[in-house]
Design goal:
This protein is of the alpha+beta class. It folds into 2 domains: 4-244 and 415-431, Conserved hypothetical protein from pyrococcus furiosus pfu- 392566-001, ParB domain, CATH 3.90.1530.10; 248-389, no CATH class. Helices cover 33% and strands 25% of the residues. The protein is built from 15 helices and 21 strands. It has helices at 33-40, 48-51, 59-75, 125-138, 155-160, 186-196, 207-222, 260-267, 282-292, 330-333, 336-348, 353-357, 368-377, 393-402, 426-431; strands at residues 4-5, 10-12, 76-78, 84-93, 96-108, 117-118, 140-141, 145-149, 169-173, 176-183, 201-205, 230-237, 244-246, 249-253, 271-277, 298-302, 308-314, 362-365, 382-387, 412-414, 424-425. The strands form 5 sheets. Strands 1, 4, 5, 6, 8, 9, 10, 11 and 12 form a 9-stranded mixed β-sheet that branches. It is globular and about 65 Å long.
Length: 433
């Protein structure tokens, strides 16, 4: 049972009609040092000052907390009444315009496998500890987890749309139009909570951040915090017309060598293989991958500079048990990203699951253009480029429901949820201010 509730959000204090663009930032894990400098130069209140604080070792978390409290005092306001925050992103992708709709609320925090919140990807300890130390220092939920629920009739929109009024935030950021509305109508909130009560929540993005919130919950319970059980989350309808998933390509490096013909010979019992000229542009590559994967799992492999692409398509008579995958969850047995990691990366190339998780021999590119550039010209380190199709949402749901997980970076829900929309200040809830 998914328990959501409204909260008194902490938001930037914006003049009427002013854009929130100068104070917003992308997720911390896609920002390098140069990108951080550019963001904080936009405003003395830009949220990257505390989302990605500067400093050596653990001192950076104290610096982040100081920056956060300073910006709260100078440039933020806590809403007087609890509510949920309807959030729309309007963006261009795949040659079309989309509007992804969702809302920000609090959700009861339950560990994966023990409640309605379900995961589809593995997590690593390093990022979780980093985010936990920042959350602990700031005593606040600063970043949004992206969750999904099934609502084919879009019932949640029918509840909130009549009462959402005018936006409280507008911004054009990272090529996306962002709009946020605060909904505090008591009757609508009660209906929304009831509507979500029987839903499963599937994490689309932010597995590390969600597990961090769960760990923080346990710390807060230990000190008797009255609001320990809930954390901040963005929820969207997995049946939404604006839900766009893009592929994440794999680039192999750091091996003693890659013999692609030998790899293809090893996996020939499982895949039909066609070798052809490397497509020269994004649209041609996307179309070729989509064609290959229209009915069965497929991906493309190329050695940079070779000018050729091997397209692997799962054989129609593929037997998971005969391939040694009988113990794998059924939802994964014919999933392209799972087969690539198991049959090609691990068995044929010897990249262990531990090395995959640590990204010892793998880099991940979300851009077709950048991946094609490396495939065509090389970059001095990449030995193999693996071109992927996007993982369909129904496959993500099936894996979540199975209780198993996909390899890391199996999905890319576009666009990302930025930082700076709304925060949840635990210090203020504890003090009762």
């Amino acid at each position: 049972m998914a328990k959501i509730r409204p909260f008194r959000g902490l938001r930037y204090t914006l003049e009427a009609g002013a854009s929130a663009t100068p104070v917003m930032a992308p997720p911390y894990d896609v920002v390098d040092a140069q990108g951080r400098d550019a963001l904080v130069a936009k405003s003395e209140h830009n949220c990257m000052r505390f989302i990605l604080p500067e400093g050596e070792g653990d001192e950076k978390y104290a610096h982040g907390a100081t920056a956060f409290r300073s910006i709260v005092a100078e440039g933020m306001t806590r809403d007087s009444e609890p509510g949920i925050y309807v959030y729309h992103q309007t963006f261009e992708a795949l040659g079309s315009t989309f509007v992804r709709k969702g809302f920000v609320a609090l959700i009861e925090l339950t560990r994966f496998g023990s409640g309605p919140v379900l995961a589809h990807e593995r997590t690593l300890s390093g990022p979780k500890m980093d985010r936990l130390k920042l959350m602990r220092a700031c005593d606040a939920h600063l970043e949004l987890v992206f969750g999904m629920f099934s609502d084919p009739d879009k019932g949640w929109e029918k509840v909130v749309d009549p009462v959402k009024g005018e936006p409280v935030l507008r911004a054009d950021f990272d090529g996306v139009d962002h709009a946020l509305w605060k909904v505090d109508d008591a009757a609508a909130l009660e209906k929304l909570q009831a509507h979500l009560a029987e839903k499963s929540i599937y994490i689309a993005d932010g597995h590390h951040r969600y597990e961090t919130m769960c760990a923080f919950r346990e710390e807060l319970e230990g000190r008797g915090h009255p609001e320990a059980a809930y954390g901040m989350i963005y929820l969207s309808n997995l049946d939404d017309d604006g839900l766009v998933v893009l592929p994440t390509h794999r680039l192999v490096h750091g091996l003693a060598g890659v013999d692609l013909p030998a790899v293809l010979e090893q996996v020939k019992p499982y895949f039909d293989v066609v070798t052809e000229d490397l497509p020269s542009d994004t649209e041609s590559m996307r179309a070729r991958m989509a064609e290959a994967g229209s009915q069965r799992a497929a991906f493309g492999l190329t050695v940079p500079g070779s000018g050729t692409l091997a397209v692997l398509r799962l054989r129609a008579d593929f037997d998971p048990a005969a391939a040694g995958l009988g113990d794998m969850a059924e939802a994964l047995q014919r999933l392209d990203v799972a087969l690539l990691h198991e049959l090609v990366l691990e068995r044929a190339l010897g990249i262990t699951k531990e090395a995959q998780a640590a990204k010892t021999n793998l880099r991940y590119f979300k851009s077709y253009d950048a991946s094609i550039d490396v495939a065509r010209d090389g970059d001095g380190q990449t030995q193999l480029v693996c071109f992927m199709n996007a993982t369909p949402v129904e496959d993500v749901v099936a894996v979540c429901d199975s209780g198993e997980v996909m390899p890391q970076k199996s999905t890319f829900f576009f666009p990302k949820i930025p930082n700076g929309l709304v925060f949840y200040d635990l210090a203020q809830t504890e003090s009762g201010d």
